[in-house]
Specification:
CATH superfamily of the largest domain: Spore Coat Polysaccharide Biosynthesis Protein SpsA, Chain A
CATH class of the largest domain: Alpha Beta
CATH topology of the largest domain: Spore Coat Polysaccharide Biosynthesis Protein SpsA, Chain A
Radius of gyration: 18 Å
Structural class: alpha/beta
Helix content: 40-55%
CATH architecture of the largest domain: Alpha-Beta Complex
Number of strands: 9
Mean pLDDT: 92
Shape: globular
Strand content: 15-25%
Number of helices: 11
Length: 269
């Protein structure tokens, strides 16, 4: 038995939320519970959409926060309402493939030592027929551990984890924009075991503006904040910290067209 954990805020498109929820309710292995956190007040249309699905699906539980608190805080609150040990993450503008949960839950059944299971994702524009890249990740734990010292080791929206292990690690840390990466390094530092399915289980919505948002000094500052946190908990050494900062400075401050090329052709497949 497992829960699905989502968080939605006022800028989400109702049509995207519908596509997301429809993909959850057409799985070959159905979730036993869906916990949807409203991260602050929503638009009337979003509220109507959520109410419609709650009426149709009694296994859907809604948690309303009075103010927008950001993704990490919203997910920490949502975890309190998840009834089962296994929790699957999902973003409200993405689309799960029909066999996503069947494949990932099977990993935990066959490999009880695994604490976090993610997978590849396919990034698309507008609709799933326009896949522009596939974000692949290393499969096995030793590779994941090495990879995590330089890049995020899992695809957050395609993750299933053991709730108790996340809580033991302190939940999502208050690191703006990098709450999930901060959590994974916390868990890895505590000896949690990771696995990534070597196939895509989810369509991840993106746009040409994505690469613009991944540039500029503000982005650099947030990344340095994350890297400093990784150094403070002993996950990376000072030389690795300096190397990571130097690489990110170059990528974040280069022209958007070049940064987009690097993401699509060098960091993706």
């Amino acid at each position: 038995m497992f829960s699905v954990l989502l968080s939605v805020y006022k800028k989400e498109q109702p049509a995207y939320l519908r596509e997301c929820l429809d993909s959850l309710f057409t799985q070959t292995l159905m979730p036993d519970e869906i916990v949807l956190v409203k991260d602050g007040p929503l638009t009337d249309e979003l509220d109507r959409t959520i109410d419609e699905y709650v009426q149709l699906h009694p296994e859907m539980k809604v948690v309303a926060l009075p103010q927008n608190r950001g993704l990490g805080c919203a997910l920490n609150e949502g975890l309190k309402h998840c009834s089962f040990s296994l929790v699957a993450r999902m973003d409200t503008d993405d689309i799960a493939k029909p066999e996503r949960f069947e494949k990932q839950i099977r990993v935990f059944a066959e490999h009880p030592e695994v604490d976090v299971c993610s997978a590849w994702i396919e990034e698309f524009y507008e609709d799933t027929s326009r896949v522009v890249s596939v974000k692949k990740l290393p499969e096995l734990h030793p590779e994941i551990l090495r990879y995590a010292r330089k890049r995020c080791p899992v695809n957050h929206p395609a993750t299933v984890f053991r709730k108790e292990k996340v809580l033991e690690a302190g939940g999502y840390p208050p690191i703006p924009m990098y709450e999930d990466y901060g959590l994974w390094v916390r868990m890895l530092a505590r000896g949690c075991r990771f696995y990534n399915l070597p196939e895509s289980v989810l369509y991840f919505r993106t746009s040409p503006d994505t690469f613009k948002r991944r540039g500029g000094w503000e982005y650099v500052k947030k990344e340095i904040n994350l890297l400093n946190y990784m150094r403070e908990i002993g996950f990376i050494s000072t030389p690795v910290f300096c190397q990571n900062v130097a690489i990110r400075l170059v990528v974040r401050l280069m022209p958007n067209s070049i940064r987009g090329f690097i993401y699509k052709h060098l960091l993706r497949k």
